[in-house]
Amino acid sequence: MQQIKRTKLGITICLVVLLTLVLGACGNAGNNNQTNKETGTNDSSGQSKTVATREYTDATGNKIRIPANPQRVVTTQYLDAMLALGVKPVGATSYLLEGVYLNGKIDGIADIGNPTNVEKVLELQPDLIIATEDTTPEVKEQLEKIAPTVVVSFGNGDVFKQLRDVAAVLGKDKEAEQWIASLNKKAEEGRKKLAGKFKKDETITIYMTYGKDVLRVYGARNVGHVIYRSLELNPPEYIRQKLAQDPKFNFVYDSISMEKLPELSGDRIIMLVYDEATKDGILKEIEQSALWKNLPAVKNHKVYFIKDDPWFTYSPLAIDKSLDEAIQMFSGDPK
Predict the structure, then answer these.
(1) How far from the centroid of its chain's Cα atoms is residue 74's Cα?
(2) Most buried among 189, 202, 222, 327, using CB within 10 Å?
(3) Is Transport there in the keyword field (predicted)?
(4) Which of the 8 DSSP states describes residue 323?
């Protein structure tokens, strides 16, 4: 009789343990579905394989299931940021591949055209596409049929936010913070190197000439990020007020008149010469004018001419390269 009771007790304990394991497994599966999920895809040989995915909410508010560890990424904008994070895309937009400052870093990356050639993207068999809010609905719809397509905002925030947003898509948050810390350290060292090169209240104005008739003045993006933020040099009063109202102020979009030069020009001037056309266009007109010749910065030989590459590009590696050039330029070190 005791043997029968022990047998029943043993069976009951086994059933309880089994039930506990089953319920625990179900609970774990439910938790995993909130973050990671496995989906079936076909590799290049046509064989089925399982890929871990996660849910991501992009700049448009769309919730998209993307690869947890993407291997073949195509981007319409963020080539520079991806390279800074140690990720080499399989394809990128044409103009992104033209930057001289990226020489040696972009070998093997396919050109997907500009505008985006959807057929070329399809040939690359990406498992993830990173686009911008400027992507047309028609193109975005076609890209979504090829691979999960995430929109990262280009204009909402500075270059650091851009890098962090791309890192969040790629699962490279740690790498982004390391890169930002490295740039900030370089900027700090640059400020120390330039200490004594500038008077306390000395100001510097950034102009850009473009084509035959465009003259713009810059705020805190592109060139301004390096000059006003990284090196913490003083903008002229007009730009200082603009930045006080909006720290993200980029530039005065409309071309300013030459009559504004005495009002806007600081003790030093940086002139970004965007293209060859400007040399015989607006730049030539400016340099031949009495207004220009009478500016204190011109008379004191404190005018610096720079090119669009890398200075005009507002992305991590371009900013890094521009910072190097700025420190050399102001310190008088040979390149």
Answers:
(1) 15
(2) 222
(3) yes
(4) H
Q: Which one-letter DSSP state was computed for residue 256?
A: P
Indicate the DSSP class of residue 235: P
Angle (deg, nearest 10), helices 159-170 and 173-194 = 160
Query: Would you call the peptide bond into 247 cis, given omega within 30 degrees of 0 as the criterion?
Result: no
294 neighbors 203 (Cβ within 8 angstroms) = no
Peptide bond into 148 cis (omega under 30): no
Pick the CATH number of 51-171 from 3.30.230.10, 3.30.1370.10, 3.20.20.220, 3.40.50.1980: 3.40.50.1980
Q: Measured between alpha carbons, how far is 116 from 202 in angstroms, rounded to an integer?
A: 45
pLDDT tens digit sequence for 51-65? 799 999 999 999 999
For residue 99, how many C-alpha atoms fall within 13 Å in the half-sphere facing its CB? 27
Q: Under 8 Å CB-to-CB from 57, ≥6 apart: which residues?
A: 63, 64
Q: CA-CA distance, 291 to 298, in Å (whole number)?
A: 10
Helices 159-170 + 316-331 axis angle, to 10:
140
Helix (H) or strand (E) holding 83: helix 79-84
| DSSP 3-state percent helix, strand, coil across the chain (nearest 5) | 50, 20, 35
What one-letter code names the amino acid at 219? G
pLDDT digits (tens, 9 = 90+) for 119-142: 999 999 999 999 999 999 999 999
Dihedral of alpha carbons 100, 105, 111, 115, sign: negative
Q: How far are the Cα atoms of 12, 186, 188, 243, 270 from residue 97, in angstroms, in the given order?
A: 69, 26, 30, 32, 26
pLDDT one-digit tens code per residue, 284-332: 999 999 999 999 999 999 999 999 999 999 999 999 999 999 999 999 8
Q: Which CATH number fits domain 197-331: 3.10.20.30, 3.10.50.40, 3.40.640.10, 3.40.50.1980?
A: 3.40.50.1980
CB 206 within 8 A of CB 270: yes
The residues of the chain that CATH labels 3.40.50.1980 are 51-171, 197-331
